[in-house]
Structure formats: C-alpha cells, structure tokens
Amino acid sequence: MGFWAKKLTRCFSRLSLKAKIKQVVAWVLLGWFYFSLPAALFHSPASFVITDKDGNLLNASISDDGQWRFPFTNETPEKFIKCIVAFEDKRFYYHWGVDPIAMIRALSQNIKYGKIVSGGSTLTMQVIRLHKQNARRSLVNKAIECMLAVRMECAYRKKTILSLYACHAPFGGNVVGLEAASWRYFGRAANQLSWGEMAALAVLPNAPSLVHPGKNSAILLRKRNELLDKLAANKTIDESACRLAKLESLPGKPLPLPQLAPHLLDRLKKDFLSVNKNKSQPSVIQTTLDGHLQQQVNAVLNHHHQRLKGNQIKNAAALAVDIETGNILAYAGNVFETDLSIESHVDVLASRRSPGSTLKPLLYAAMLTEGSLLPQQLVPDIPTQMAGYTPQNFDLSYDGAVPADKALTRSLNIPAVKMLQQYKYGRFYEMLKKCGISTLNQPADHYGMSLILGGCEINPVELMGVYSSMARMYSHETANDGEWNEEDWRPLNYIHGHKPSNKKSHKKSSGIFDYVSLWHTFRAMTEVMRPGEEGLWDSFNASQRIAWKTGTSFGFRDGWAIGVTPAYGVLVWTGNTTGEGRPELIGLNAAAPVMFDIFRLLPPSSRWFRPPVGNFITMNVCRASGFKATPECAETDSVAAGEQSVQAANCPYCKKVHLDPSGKFRVNDACLSPSKMTHASWFILPPVIEHYYRQKHLDYKPLPPFMSGCEEDAKVLDIIYPNESAVIYVPVELSGEKGNTVFTATHKKSQAKLYWHLDNEYAGVTQNFHQLPLNPSVGKHVITIVDEVGNTARRQFKILEKAR
Predict the structure, then answer these.
(1) 291-308 helix and 592-601 helix, angle to the nearest 10 degrees
(2) Pick from 549, 532, 558: which is nearest to 315 by CA?
(3) Rounded distance between C-alpha atoms, residue 778 and residue 723, angstroms
(4) Distance of CA 45 to the CA centre of its chain
(5) pLDDT exceeds 80 at position 24
C-alpha cells in the first residue's frame, strides 16, 4: 500500500462515527456526480451521408428510426451559434450549466401565471433533456437536469455542447439536427444559410410541433423577426442586415434531399456495415466524386436512356475516373426511373456482367510483352472449330489473315481465339487475376476458349481499374526508369484521402505488361472507328484522342464502351439488369455514344501517350506478314518491340520460288535444269487462308501455275453427292419439319480436313468422314469444298419445292 493511501487510512480511522458517515456520503455523492454522465450521450441511429470531394452533399439515407438525422459533427456554423445563444441562452458562456437568473425569472413567471410558461433551461440543460429523451417535466427531473448540466460543463467544452445541441435538437416532423433541417427546408448546407434562414431554424427547436414550416407561419415569422431584432440589438448584425433578413421568405414544405449518387451510397453503406459489425454511427463519408460532373453524367445517362428504352434497352451505367490518382469522379450505377419494372435500383457497377470483347486488349498486350506476337503479325481468320467450340466474327465474314493490331481495332473474334489458343487460356486466366479481376470464381477449364469473347463475368469497376492502371503505368515510364512499379497498378478508389495499394512498393524489372506493348495497344485502340459523327473526330483539332474498346456479350445482353486518355477514363455499360438480350444491344451503337458524350464533359487532355523511350528493341519485320523478317522477305519494315521479341517466330509465308526464264511458270528440277531457273521471293499463304485472303486483298499475287509437265495430275478431291446440275427434292420428315440434304465428298488423304461452303457462305468442316447435312432453300445453289492445301471442288444443284 502506498504512502498516501496509508496516511489517508490513518486519518480516516481517527474520525468520529458521524464524521466517517459524512465522509462516506460525500464520497458516494462525488462518485455519483462523476459517473452520472455516460461516456456517450446519444445512441440514436444517424442517416448515412456521403459528400463529394469538396464536401458538397451527394446523398443521404433516412436513419433506421425513420428520422432525418445527420451524423454528429463538431463544426457548427457561427451564424447558428450566434442565433441560438441569443434566442435560448444569452449567458451561455458565463454559467456552469445552470443559469440562476433564468431559473428565478422562470419561477416568478410560472407563479404569476399559475402554469409553466418558462422553463429557465440553459442550452446545456436542453442537451441533457435531449439525452434523456424528453423525460416528464417535474421538480425532481429539473433538479437532475441541473446536476447533470453542471457535470456536463465539467467534461465538455462550450463548443462541443453547442454542437451536440445543433446535431440532436428537433426541427419539426422527422427532421433532427441543424444540417438535416437546412437541407430539408432550404435545400443547401447549413454553412450556406443567410441570417434570415438561420434565424428561422434557430427558433424551431423551442416549439417544433407548433411552428412546423408551412404551418402556423405567422408564429414562425414573429419568432424569427424577434430573434433578428435581438441580433441587431446585441450588434451581431446591423440594422440594414436585420431589415433585409426580415424580408426573406419562410420555408415551405420540406424539400427532398439530393440523390445524385444513390448507388454509391448503398455501396458505401454495405462496405461500412461489413467492416463495422456493431453498426456504430458513421461520420459523413467524403467521396472522391466531383459533384458537378456527377450531375452532368446523370443527365447524359438519362438522355440516352430515353433513346435506348425505345429498343427495350432499359438500363445503363457509367463511370468516370482520374487516371493519375485512380479516384472515381462520377459513379452512376444505373439510370433514374420511378418505374419499378426498370429496376433502376440495381447497381450495375457493383454487379458482374459478361465483358464481351473488352478483354481483347489485355491479351494483345500480354502476347506482345512475352514476345510471342508482333504488333502487325498476321493472325489466321478462317472458319475455326475447337473441340466443338465454333467462334464467329460479328459480321460472319472471314479475312483469311489479318494483322494483330487490325484484328484488335476491328474486334475480330476468330483471330482473338487463335491468339488465345497460342497463349493458352489457363495463362490468360491467371493473368486476369493478376491484373485485379476477382470475379473469376470458376476454374480456367470452366471458361475455356470463350474467356476472350466474354464467356465469364466481370465487375465493371474492376475492369475500369485495369484499364486505368494500364494508362497510369505507361504515363509513368520515365518516372519509373522503364521498370515495372507495383504501386502504379491498383484498384479504383472512391473514398477521399484513401489510396488503395497492392502492398508492394518496390520496383522490379518485369510485370504484367511492358511499356512498348502498352504503347502498341493504345495505338491500336485509337484507330477504332467511332460511331456517327464521331467517325470524323481526327478532322477537328479540338477532338480528343481516346484509346477505347467496345464489347457486346453473347445473346446481345451487354453493350460496353471503355476508353482512356492520359488523364481520364470512362466506362459505360448498357443493357437490361434482367439479362434480357436485344438485337439492337451492340456496344458500338448503344454504349459508345454515351462514352463520348461523357468524355466531352471532361477537360480535354493537352497531351497524348508519347512513344516509349527505352527498354525496347528495333526489329525488322516482313512488310507483308508482320512476322520477324527473314532473307526471303522482299520488303521489310522496322518496329519497336519488347526485348522478349527476339524469340519471335520467323516469317513462315515468304519463300523462294523457282520460275522459268519468263517468270510466268513455276518449275522444278524434273522439268527444267536449275541453271535455267530464275528465283523470286513470294508471299505465299496456306491455301485455306489464301482462299479468304484473296477475296479481301485484290493485290494478292497467287503463285504462278506449274509449267506443263511439272505439276501432278492426280485428282485428290471430289464431290460424290450431288452430281453436277443435280435437281433435289427434300421430303418432309415425320415430325412435319423439312429434312436435310446430306452432301458427301472424298479425298485422297484419309486424314484431310475439308471446309464446306454453301453459296460462298461457310457451312462447316469435316475430317475423315466427309458427310455434311445441310438444308438449302428452294432454288439454285453452289456447294464448294476446299481442303487444307487449296484443292477445290464445286457442284451446282437445284432444290425443288415439290416433287416432280
């Protein structure tokens, strides 16, 4: 036991019994006085409130008890402090919670009138009464209020007491607190109110049920003007300000609160409750949104909604971000509609949707980074079937072969699948996860090759985060000394002052993409043909250069447009939250116009991504094929490529051919002496690729024919059925449906693969057993079959409507 404890015990033991009792009672009273006031006075639920980056109100939800009650803040407007002190407690700064003068005055008035006409309560006592939830008025309760008020003055600063009053005083109806009242009655923040408006609010807590705005306006007007006179009398405002304030109109019926970002409000509310299981009261959450831009994006989205819903496309969402910070500037999770069937309450930006073709740039950049692809390298674009999976281009046509960058620009599906086949879908799956895509909940085999065409579900915010990280990373090439910096790759942020991180701040030499690959990717994305009048964007100096991509999911269920500049990124989704597909729901037509309208709201970027400055090599490539050049390539170009591109494949299409002296015929040593031959470099595509390539490239030079006596005469391909000019009648099956015609062919090589076309439209492929059932319409047709080396067979036939 300590020295002082022993001394106190010795002193207490020397006291008489009566003195000891007095000491105990004194300590008990002192203990009661100390612990009489709880640590937290108020536990009422508050509204969930979010503001923009400048503190302007975006949205608020009503509290769980049905009141508009904003969270506590210690920042009370000076005008309200002046008004409430003058109206309720003019000696507030001079008493210790109880004002004896006011108590005596109230007592004398109550005795004079024979009823309670004045309470003499200080603001501190009123805070205690609010804390006790308006306990019944009596002498006992009044005495307890006085004691607790004194205790409160010992524990709280005057400013805090005023803030507690301002945040919890009733202002009529279901409005509690100054800030909620300011928005409900005047439509703006309390710190923006005039003297007349603030005075009108200051008199409300005194009798909220009697002077509800819109009712008993004469009483409210009298009380407000009396308060303004007091403010003029104590020199808070001058006489002219007082007269002008009296001319201000009183508030009418309560106004609706701003609802600029309702979906983000719900998202933040869920985030908060998931972290705070006890549902403790949040403060006002300041977001990264730009309030003015948010209003404009909402307007753009709803303008296009009127256009789209005519085609039964009922929903749309948009996102605008700052590339450098990764902050979300506008968050429109859906359109604004009162029609419940529209389901505008669904936050699409927090949902998972099929991304369509929006993942193609990531595959292109990944293959360039690893060196397995060069920017303009030809990729096959022919009828393709992989284990039962048959991808098709959107326009159902084929180019035979197309440069990889043009395939990305045109968003061709078959080249993308061919590229993924080379890259392997398992690796692409892991790369997407490394990029920050968290919604791939199934194993890679579940998605397979369809992964590149949107056969998965992606969260729009995460997708925009990947694109913005790509743009941010490239913009920092010089600052990062050409190395990968993990800090530049991070998710988007919508909380002001918060900076998400990947928790790895060190630089390292390799990452997801290299800088030169991002350069080529953005360049290909700027060449996408814009819709409508936007197609002439590069004819105007004021037009923004944007790297962008569209996407359309299978079944026309999702239309996407996503674009970036060095400064900003915009994502737009259009569709139906029900998943209903519409034929008109195409990213280029439905989402892209919205995206470009939003980009026009953003400050135009004065710079574009500059070419890479280091960590790349200059490679000679074949001009005809885009592959790494070989001695057989007649013409070459140089291209910047990643250092890994030294391993790129040599051009397989440029070869030396042997010709006769005239150069008109191919020869071999069986028909012409080598000494008499001439030799030329020739761009030679495989026969199946050539078949389609020649249709789109009239300048393609096929190989010259063999000189007589040099070629083989054996016929390797023939059509067994139908015969030339056959006339066919197809009977009706037992089911009542028209039957199929089974076409049959043969090939000298048993393992040959044959490609079938009906009237120049691709119909299917066979291997080993060459039979294909088709259902041609009535009339004349041509069946064409091409094998892998270009041998071709054709038949003309006619389908009859009725049997002869």
Answers:
(1) 150
(2) 558
(3) 17
(4) 31
(5) no
Tell me the CB-side half-sphere exposure of residue 133, using CA atoms within 13 A. Answer: 3
Residue 326 near residue 314 (C-beta atoms within 8 A): no
Q: Tokens for 89?
A: 């407690």
Helix (H, G, I), strand (E, B) or coil at 441: coil
8-state DSSP, 702? P
Q: Which of 346, 167, 350, 184 is nearest to 253 (CA)?
A: 184
pTM (2 d.p.): 0.83
Q: Please give the Cα distance from 389 to 110 (Å, whole number).
A: 91
Distance (Å, rounded) from C-alpha 527 to C-alpha 604?
A: 19
Residues 6+ apart with CB under 8 A from 559: 313, 356, 550, 551, 552, 573, 574, 575, 585, 586, 587, 589, 590, 591
Question: Helix (H, G, I), strand (E, B), or coil: what is residue 556?
Answer: coil
Residue 290 has pLDDT above 70, yes or no: yes
Q: Nearest to residue 677, comparing CAs of 687, 689, 669, 685?
A: 669
- Interval 103-128: pLDDT, tens: 667 566 665 555 554 566 888 888 88
Average pLDDT over residues 545-552: 94
Give residue 390's pLDDT: 78
Collapse the DSSP code of 739 into the 3-class scheme (helix H, G, I; strand E, B; otherwise coil) and give the result: coil
Is 97's pLDDT higher than 90?
Answer: no
Where does residue 652 fall: left (phi above 0), alpha (psi -120 to 50 degrees), or beta otherwise? alpha
d(CA 508, CA 319): 31
Angle between the N-to-C axes of helices 217-233 and 239-246, in degrees from 0 to 180, rounded to the nearest 10: 170
- Give the pLDDT mean for 115-144: 72
Q: What distance in Å separates the CA atoms of residue 687 and residue 754, rounded to the nearest whole number?
A: 12
Q: Report CA 107 to chain centroid distance, whole Å.
A: 64
Report whether 732 contacts 801 (CB < 8 A): no
The answer to whether the CB of 787 falls within 8 A of the CB of 766 is no
Nearest one of 421, 419, 430, 432 to 367, comparing CA atoms? 419
- The alpha-carbon radius of gyration of the chain (Å, integer) is 40
For residue 365, name the pLDDT band (cuts at 50, 70, 90).
Answer: very high
| Position 1 pLDDT exceeds 60 | no
Q: What is the DSSP string of 416-431?
A: HHHHHHHH-HHHHHHH
Per-residue pLDDT, averaged over 644-649, amounts to 91
In tens, the pLDDT along 146-201 reads 777 777 888 889 999 899 999 999 988 889 999 999 999 999 999 999 999 999 99
Angle separating helix axes 217-233 and 78-88, nearest 10 degrees: 100
